[in-house]
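Appendix B.2, paired examples.
Example (i):
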Amino acid sequence: MTTTIEKTNMDEFERLLEESFSKSNAVADIVEGTIIRKEQDGFLVSVRGAKTEAFLPSKEISSMEGAETVDLGDVKEFYVLKEENDDEGMVLSLKRLAFAQAWAQLNDAKIQGDTILAKVVSIVKGGVLVDVADLKGFIPSSQLRTGTPFDGLIDTKIEVKVLEADPKKNKLILSQRQAVAEQRDQVVDNILSTLEEDMVVKGEVVRIADFGAFVDINGIDGLLPISEISWSRIKHPSDVISLGETIEVKIIKIDSELKRISLSLKRMGEDPWQQIEGQFEEGQVITGTVNKVTGFGAFINIFPGVEALLPVSEMAEENVNPFNRYKVGDSVEVLIKKFTPQEHRIALSVKDINKDAE
């Protein structure tokens, strides 16, 4: 004879059993299923607890369009793309499962501080887009080693750190600069021990700024000041060098304490101030080209890489405005008033030429 308590327990068990078989799986759930039949544009999948067979579209099998990577009888985990209702079965995805796993791995990399590889696919406003495990990520210009995107980055693989990985917002922000900084800390002492002042080395231009450029020397970024790029006056480092370019430079200083190296490109060639010794003399009249005009005078190029100063007081007997009298590119006849190439100084005069003519 069945008691009231036994009947109540039996009813509760049947209810829970029914719920276990009728429970619907929500979007983004992970379910296990078996591939049971091939359809024209996908596969049917038997999922435990589902009322009807689920459907796996071919386009949701792989991130590679139309690639079929499943066989009948395969038992796999699937991502629920669309939940089951009274009219239709679930729609599943393997591709989204791979994406979910990729997001999880990227989040782990962020937490652990791991370095990962990313392929640069395009340059966009404010940075570059990269591909990481079939996910699109963004590296802001400020987080690029170069500081500025350039065409040579496209299709290259670079090491990066994960700054943000948010699958809900589909937001993946990465940093190449942090990855490079970590590598630098690990190898800097070993590399510095192999370098010496006056050594000629090859390096890649990895960043250009108004004050100079940074050149990668075996993993260390050396500073190439704008004053050490060319013997001639230049407005900006990019006038002579470009991002990604490989150049030969001379090491002019190594600071082991601060772990910095200073470089020179202009010293790879002969010092033009040494070349002009014996070619000019005081009292000689020559023709030069105006390189720069300032309030106190004009700088005149008299030899490749050599500038001499024409003070405003030496332009004429009367007071003149140098900006009204000369402009960059003008050819001007000048007299060498003082010649001391050892000190890199040459003083010029125009008014003294006029005096001699009188």
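Example (ii):
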Amino acid sequence: MKCIAIDDEPKALKVIEALCSKTDLADLVKTFRAPLEALSWLQNNEVDLVFLDINMPELSGYDLITTLNKKPQIIMTTAYSSFAVDSYLYDVTDYLLKPIELKRFLLAIHKANDRIKHLSLVKNTEKESVLYVKEGTIIHKISLDQLTYVESSGNYVIYHLLDRDIKIRQTLKDLLLDLPPKQFFRVHKSFVVSIDRIDIIEPHQLQINRRNVPIGSKYKSDFLQLMRRIREKK
């Protein structure tokens, strides 16, 4: 992780430097004694993690956090335990009390690294919320939040979007491998629906985007159980 440290005390910065040298996870690229100088640097540079003292002249650590347009992971460092409660209000990664012990420092570093990995995973998931399907020499980009349901028709699959339909030579079985199971559910041997796009549930059919979709007897029980679980969570 690319890191910087901000603290008005030179000795405190030396401690952070020494601790960072003991782990491969932290690459300390710069230190600052003046928070305003650090803030100016951050406007043109990105880092993964900031070690930030709370009680500093000109600008407190908390004030600095509120001015950041893009907030990296923040590990607060302070000699005052009374600040611990306030740190949770700013969604900081961790809170280290001076003098900082190596074991506690490493725990905070790993916590920040885990957070970064999780955020990366979420972003990748968002990027994968589209489907690319080929129709002859044409490739269609289908946004999954626009896909209402999918219908199997012979050797073809029809993608029913909010504003149009796309017919592709494909099997429903192969398509199911590309659809997120938490978002789409098979309700019939020939139909897979977007759970979020269901408007009305009737005994033997669904209404989605003003169209009727049958519920197969083989799939009805599992579908109703799913809908029951969804209602209970709300």
